[in-house]
Specification:
The structure holds two protein chains of two kinds. Chain A is an alpha/beta fold. Chain A is built from 16 helices and twelve strands. The chains are: A alpha/beta, B alpha/beta.
Chain lengths: 363, 573
C-alpha cells in the first residue's frame, strides 16, 4: 500500500466531514429558473410539485444538453421560504402535526424559524450511511456519545430530493428510497442506533432513457414524468445560447436581471398554494379522468389520483376556482405517460398514445 | 493521410491552446490515439501549454468510487485512530487536467460522476460519513483507444467536451518540431471577451446546418470563440474566432453534410428557410449568410471524411452513445468488480480492504473495550459485487406457418441443437419461438441444456397462417427479459416474410404486413441485434425490407440444411 506518507494538504483532517456545517451554505450562483427558455412542460411539472407535494415526484427524461439539471437546481432559489421548528435536525414543519420527529412531538414550546426549502442533491455513488444517516463519528470518538447524524433523507424532509442520472442509481439505494417514499418515514437500525424520523420529500429524478430503464417500482413513485427535447426552432436555440452565454460571463449580473420575474413566480406559487384547498373538482372532470385512465388501461388508482391532484394544482396556479377540462388535458400527458402498460409493438411513443386517448376521451 | 497529417497536428495544437486558455469552460478534449509516441507528444504539448504547477492527474481505468470522489484514507485513519479524509482524484484535478485512458470502456457510473463535475465545477461527496461539496473544475482529456466496430466513449460525456481529434493515423514523423506552445501568458480572460452581435446566431445556424442537436455544441463553440479572441487580445469576437471555433468544436460533431454552396444561390434548402423564420431575418440575410457560408466552406475539410459513408450505413460506424447499454453489451470477458456494499460474507465474497476501511474509524472507540488488535464488527463487513460476465442468448424466431415449408422447422430445430452444442462451451444460451396460425409461442425458453432442448423441440407442429407481427413481438418480449438479466440477446428470424395474420390474430395481408413492419421497427429501436434468414425459394424484397426495418443483417438461404444454417449463424453472432 502506498499512501502512508502523503503531504498533509492532500488530506483534510476531521472537521471537514461535519455535514451540518454545509447545510446552510447557499449553493453557488445557480442559473435562474425564470431565465429558462421553453421546456414549458418541465417547468410546469416542477411548479405543480412545489404547489402540491402530494402529487409525488417528478421524473425528467430527455436528450442531452436540454437543461434538465439546470432547471431542477434552479428550483431551490425559486421556492418560497418555509417555517420549521428551530433547531430541529430534521426540519420539522410545525403545521404538519403528523410529520414530526420524536423531539418535536414531545417538546412543548415550538419556536419556529424561516428557512429555505431544501433541494438536496443525491449524487450517484453516495453510500447508505450518508443517505439514511449514521452514528455521529466525531461525537462518538471525542465524547463517547451515541448520537445520530442525520443523512440526506433527513435533510430533504419537507423539500426536494434530486437524483441526476436516476436510472444509474444502485439497486440497494433504490430499495432504501422505495421504502422511505412509501412510508414517509426513515427507520435507521445500524451501529447500535435505533432512530425513526419523518422523511417526506418530493423525489425529482432526471436521466436519459437511452442509458437504461428505470425499475418499474421506482417509476411508479414519480407522480409526473416529463420528456424534454432539444428545441428545434432556431429562434429558441439562439435565445438559449445567448442567455447561457450571458450567464457564464456574469452570473450575478444575469441573476439580478431576473430577480423581478423570479419574485413574480414565487408569489404565484404562494398564491396557488393558498388557493389549492378551495379549488373545486366538478364531477364531470372526475368522470372524464376516470374514462381516460380506463381507455389507457393504467394500472391501479394512483394514476387517477395523481391526475386529479395535478389538475387541481394547475387550476390553482392559473388562479381558477374550479378545475376545467383544459387543465386535465394539459397535465394528462405528464401524469400518464409512464403509467401505460408496456406495449411491446408500439412504434409511437407513449406521449402520442396519451394524446390519442385524450382526443377520444375528451371530445 | 500523410499530407493531412501536419494539418491534424496543427489542429491539435490549436485545440490545446484554446483549452489552456479556459480549461474548465471548454470541458476538455477527446483524443483518439493509442498509447505511443504521438500520444506522448500530445501530452507533452498539453503540459507545455499550461502554466507550471497545473495539476495533471491521471485517472486509472478501474478505480473505486472512493478514489474518484474522496473518502476515508485507510492507512492514515488506522494510524491516527480517527477518520482521515483523503481527497479524491476529481478534487485533486481542480484547476488542471484530468486524463482518462481507455475511455471507450469507461464505466457508466464513473462517466456520470465526471459529467456532474463538469457541469457544476464541484464534486458532491456523500460517503463514509463525509458530506461535502468540493471544488473540482478541470479539463478532461479522454483517450479513446477503441477500434472501429467497438464501443465509443459515452456520448453524454463527449457531448460536454469541446474538442475531439483523431491522431490515430499519425506517426511521430509527422509531428512538426517547431510547434512547441508556450504557456498562455494571457493578458485577457476569455470571460472578458464579448460575443459580437450576430455571432451567437451564426453559431446556432452552423450547428443546425451540420445537424447537431445538442445545444451544448454552440455554447462550447461560443466559449471557444471567446478563448480564441482572448488569445489574440481582442475584446470582442471577430469572424476568424467564429470560424476557428466552428472548425474545432462543431465540425467533428456533424451528423450531416451542409448543403453545397451552389445550391444555396438557387432555391433555398430547408435549413435556410428555417433560418429566415429568425426574429431578425433581414439582418441574417445581409450580414451573416455570407459569413456562415464562408465558415462552412472553411470547415468542410474538418468534417470527418467517413461521415458520408457512416450516414449511408444508417448509423455511425461505432455504437456511439449507447451508454450503459453499450457497456452491458460490450464483450465483458470476466466479471467486473462493481464496488463493495454491506453484506454477508457467507453468501458473497468478502472485500477485506473495504471492510477494514469501514472498521478503521471506530478503532479507538472499540479499543476501550479491550477488543482484539483490530476490532471488526458485523456492520463493517463489506462484500464485493461483480457485474457478471454477459452471455449471449440466441433467440430463434421460426416461421412455422404453411407458407414457410414445414421442413424449415426441422432445419431450425437442428440449427438450435448445433448452436447449443457450441453454446455449452461458451456458456451461452439458446431459445426458440415459433409462430403460426394466430399465435406465437415460446417453444424453448432460454436454456443451456441440450437434453432439455431436444425434449421440448420434439413434435413441434407446423402449418396455418403467418402472424409475423406476433412472432416479432414475442421475440422482443423475450429479448427484453434476457437483456434485463444482463445478457445479450441475439435474434435469428427464419421466415419468408409473407405475413398474412395481423397482430389482432385476424387475417388480411396488408394489415399483417404493416403490423410486422411496425414490430420490426420496435426491435431496431430497442437496439437488438438480429439476423434475418430468408427461407423462401427466391430472395424476397419483402424479407429484405423487413430486415432493413429491424436493422437486421439479411441472409438468403433458400435450401439450407441445419448444418449450413448453423455455419451461417455462428460467425454472425
Amino acid at each position: 500500500m502506498h499512501g502512508t506518507i502523503k503531504s498533509p494538504d492532500y488530506k483534510t483532517v476531521f472537521p471537514l466531514y461535519k455535514a451540518e456545517n454545509n447545510r446552510a451554505k447557499p449553493m453557488s450562483l445557480n442559473y435562474p429558473f425564470a431565465a429558462l427558455v421553453g421546456q414549458d412542460e418541465m417547468k410546469r411539472a416542477l411548479m405543480l410539485a412545489a404547489i402540491d407535494p402530494t402529487i409525488g415526484g417528478v421524473l425528467v427524461f430527455g436528450d442531452r444538453g436540454t437543461g434538465k439539471s439546470t432547471a431542477i437546481r434552479a428550483l431551490a432559489d425559486l421556492l418560497p421560504e418555509r417555517e420549521t421548528v428551530a433547531g430541529c435536525p430534521y426540519g420539522c414543519a410545525p403545521q404538519h402535526e403528523a410529520g414530526l420527529c420524536g423531539a418535536c412531538e414531545t417538546g412543548t414550546k415550538r419556536k419556529t424559524v424561516k428557512s429555505k426549502v431544501p433541494v438536496v442533491d443525491l449524487p450517484l455513488g453516495a453510500t447508505e450511511d450518508r443517505i439514511v444517516g449514521a452514528l455521529d463519528l466525531e461525537r462518538a470518538l471525542a465524547h463517547g456519545e451515541k448520537k445520530f447524524e442525520p443523512g440526506l433523507l433527513a435533510r430533504a424532509h419537507g423539500g426536494f430530493l434530486y437524483i441526476d442520472e436516476v436510472n444509474l442509481l444502485e439497486d440497494h439505494l433504490v430499495d432504501v428510497l422505495l421504502d422511505v417514499t412509501a412510508s414517509g418515514e426513515n427507520l435507521v437500525e445500524r451501529e447500535g442506533l435505533s432512530v425513526r424520523h419523518p422523511a417526506k420529500f418530493v423525489l425529482v429524478g432526471s436521466g436519459n432513457p437511452e442509458e437504461g430503464e428505470l425499475r418499474p417500482q421506482l417509476l411508479d413513485r414519480f407522480g409526473l414524468c416529463v420528456e424534454v427535447r432539444t428545441p428545434t426552432d432556431i429562434a429558441t436555440r439562439i435565445e438559449v445560447v445567448k442567455r447561457r452565454d450571458a450567464f457564464e460571463r456574469d452570473r450575478a449580473g444575469f441573476i439580478a436581471q431576473f430577480t423581478k420575474e423570479a419574485d413574480k413566480l414565487r408569489k404565484t406559487i404562494v398564491a396557488a398554494r393558498k388557493k389549492l384547498d378551495d379549488v373545486d373538482l366538478p364531477p364531470e372532470i372526475l368522470e372524464k379522468s376516470a374514462a381516460l385512465c380506463l381507455a389507457l388501461g393504467t394500472d391501479g388508482l394512483r394514476g387517477e389520483l395523481t391526475l386529479m391532484r395535478a389538475a387541481r394544482a394547475l387550476a390553482a396556479l392559473d388562479g381558477k376556482k374550479s378545475v376545467m377540462l383544459a387543465h386535465l388535458r394539459t397535465v394528462a400527458p405528464s401524469v400518464l405517460r409512464h403509467r401505460l402498460r408496456k406495449n411491446p409493438l408500439e412504434d409511437v411513443g407513449s406521449t402520442v398514445r396519451v394524446e390519442r386517448a385524450l382526443e377520444a376521451a375528451l371530445s | 493521410m500523410s499530407e493531412k497529417a501536419p494539418d491534424l497536428w496543427q489542429t491539435a495544437c490549436e485545440a490545446v491552446s484554446l483549452l489552456a486558455a479556459s480549461p474548465s469552460g471548454l470541458g476538455g478534449i477527446v483524443v483518439k490515439a493509442p498509447p505511443g509516441p504521438v500520444r506522448d507528444a500530445f501530452l507533452a504539448m498539453l503540459k507545455q501549454a499550461l502554466p507550471q504547477g497545473t495539476p495533471f492527474i491521471r485517472m486509472p481505468h478501474a478505480l473505486p468510487e472512493a478514489r474518484l470522489t474522496g473518502g476515508i484514507d485507510l492507512a492514515s485513519t488506522l494510524a491516527a485512530g480517527k477518520p482521515v479524509f483523503e481527497r479524491g482524484l476529481l478534487a485533486s484535478a481542480h484547476g488542471g487536467v484530468l486524463l482518462a485512458g481507455m475511455a471507450e470502456r469507461m464505466d457508466r457510473a464513473i462517466a456520470a460522476r465526471l459529467e456532474a463535475a463538469l457541469d457544476t465545477g464541484h464534486v458532491r461527496i456523500e460517503r463514509d460519513h463525509i458530506s461535502d461539496n468540493v471544488p473540482a473544475g478541470f479539463a478532461l482529456v479522454l483517450f479513446d483507444e477503441g477500434e472501429p466496430g467497438e464501443d465509443a466513449p459515452p456520448a453524454s460525456l463527449t457531448d460536454r467536451l469541446a474538442f475531439s481529434i483523431d491522431l490515430s493515423g499519425l506517426s511521430w514523423r509527422d509531428l512538426g518540431g517547431d510547434d512547441v506552445l508556450h504557456p498562455a501568458c494571457q493578458q485577457l480572460s476569455p470571460m472578458a471577451v464579448a460575443l459580437a452581435k450576430g455571432h451567437a446566431e451564426t453559431l446556432v445556424a452552423l450547428a443546425d446546418a451540420l445537424g447537431i442537436a445538442s445545444l451544448r455544441a454552440p455554447l462550447l463553440a461560443a466559449m471557444a470563440a471567446r478563448a480564441n479572441a482572448a488569445r489574440a487580445g481582442r475584446h470582442e469576437t471577430d469572424e476568424t474566432d467564429i470560424a476557428n471555433a466552428a472548425r474545432l468544436v462543431l465540425a467533428h460533431r456533424a451528423t450531416r453534410l451542409p448543403a453545397p454552396p451552389e445550391e444555396q444561390q438557387t432555391p433555398p434548402p430547408e435549413e435556410q428557410q428555417e433560418q429566415s423564420s429568425n426574429p431578425e431575418p433581414d439582418m441574417m440575410e445581409t450580414q451573416d449568410r455570407p459569413l456562415e457560408d464562408q465558415i462552412l466552406d472553411a470547415i468542410a475539410s474538418a468534417i470527418p471524411a467517413d461521415l458520408l459513408a457512416q450516414l449511408q450505413a444508417g448509423r455511425g460506424g461505432r455504437l456511439a452513445g449507447r451508454g450503459a447499454e453499450a457497456g452491458r453489451k460490450a464483450p465483458a470477458t470476466r466479471g467486473r468488480p462493481l464496488g463493495a456494499r454491506r453484506g454477508d460474507p457467507r453468501r458473497e465474497r468478502l472485500d477485506l480492504l473495504e471492510t477494514l476501511r469501514s472498521a478503521a474509524p471506530w478503532q479507538r472507540l472499540r479499543e476501550q473495550r479491550g477488543d482484539a488488535a483490530i476490532a471488526v464488527r458485523k456492520e463493517d463487513l463489506r462484500v464485493r459485487r461483480f457485474r457478471p460476465k454477459s452471455r449471449t442468448t440466441t433467440i430463434f424466431v421460426v416461421d412455422a406457418s404453411g407458407s414457410s415449408a414445414l421442413h424449415r422447422l426441422a432445419e431450425a430445430k437442428g440449427a438450435v441443437e448445433l448452436v447449443l452444442a457450441e453454446c455449452y462451451v461458451r456458456r451461452d444460451e439458446a431459445a426458440l419461438i415459433a409462430f403460426r396460425g394466430q399465435k406465437a409461442e415460446v417453444i424453448l425458453p432460454p436454456t443451456r441444456s441440450l437434453t432439455r432442448a431436444r425434449a421440448l423441440l420434439k413434435g413441434l407442429p407446423g402449418g396455418g397462417g403467418t402472424p409475423l407481427a406476433l412472432g416479432l413481438d414475442a421475440a422482443r418480449q423475450l429479448a427484453d427479459t434476457v437483456r434485463r438479466k444482463g445478457d445479450r440477446p441475439f435474434l435469428i428470424l427464419l421466415t419468408d416474410a409473407q405475413a398474412n395474420v395481423g397482430r389482432d390474430g385476424l387475417g388480411g395481408r396488408q394489415k399483417a404486413e404493416e403490423d410486422a413492419l411496425a414490430s420490426a421497427a420496435a426491435l431496431q429501436r430497442d437496439g437488438y441485434e438480429s439476423l434475418l434468414i430468408d427461407t423462401s425459394p427466391r430472395p424476397q424484397p419483402k424479407a429484405s425490407a423487413l430486415a432493413d426495418r429491424m436493422g437486421a443483417r439479411y441472409l438468403a438461404l433458400p435450401h439450407a440444411d441445419a448444418r449450413r444454417l448453423a455455419a451461417a449463424i455462428v460467425p454472425a453472432r
